[in-house]
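sorry for the late reply, my laptop died twice this morning and i had to redo everyting from scratch. anyway the thing you sent over, i finally got around to it. pasting the sequence first so we're on the same page, its 126 residues, then the predicted structure underneath. double check i copied it right bc i was rushing
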Amino acid sequence: MNIPIELKYTKDHEWIKIEGDEATIGITDFAQGELGDIVYVEIETLDETLGVESVFGTVEAVKTVSDLFMPLTGTIIAFNELLEDAPETVNEDAYGSGWMIKIKISDATEIENLLDAKAYSSLVTG
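ok and here's the structure:
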């Protein structure tokens, strides 16, 4: 299982790459493996400001639909449009071209509440 050490994580199996006051967000390798073949990613919150734990979209796999939760308060400034035509990219490259959204972070202190790679690894391996 791939858990890059430079990223932050949530208990909801999302990864966050912090770059200044912006963050790129996607689902983890573990999450895409659990979901199976992803067939649709829906994000209808572009340009909206949402709080932590707010639902920003859904990911649909062959066997289930899962909500996507904001790991940090912020404004959604970009959606990975590649996923509209190729949602399977999340399965193929969860931490790279399978990213889902980019946000402008509203409250940087919330970053302290995210998990590091070691803590996330412990969460998924028990």
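Residues 8-107 form a domain with the OB fold (Dihydrolipoamide Acetyltransferase, E2P) fold (CATH 2.40.50.100).
thats about all i looked at so far, will dig more tmrw
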